[in-house]
Amino acid sequence: MSELRKALKDFSQERDWEKFHTPKNLSMALSVEVAEIVEIFQWLNPEQSQQLNPKQKSHLAQEIGDVMVYLTMLGAKYDLDPIECAQQKMLQNAIKYPVKS
Asked: Which of 36, 38, 57, 65 is the most buried (most CB within 10 A)?
């Protein structure tokens, strides 16, 4: 994750884009990219959604990449690691939703 954060920071700095990467803009861009994932599945039935063709899968990979980029950049604004955030959330969920025996 730290390598990705550094690569994204370098990429943005080289293009002088950091001025556009406010938390507001990053969260809005993240929302748009998630919507693009939804669009891939929008008119598929449940079976089709589990059997993407190579073109659909490639498109999904690109959109997941975009989501990861914006999520990582947003987390970096607050010194939050998305992987650590997810791990903490899973611990909270385990308490909130215990396994029933």
From this structure: 36
Q: What pTM value is reported for the model?
A: 0.91
CB 41 within 8 Å of CB 63: no
Residue-wise pLDDT tens for the chain (101 aa)? 999 999 999 999 999 999 999 999 999 999 999 999 999 999 999 999 999 999 999 999 999 999 999 999 999 999 999 999 999 999 999 999 999 97
User: For 2-96, CATH number?
Assistant: 1.10.287.1080
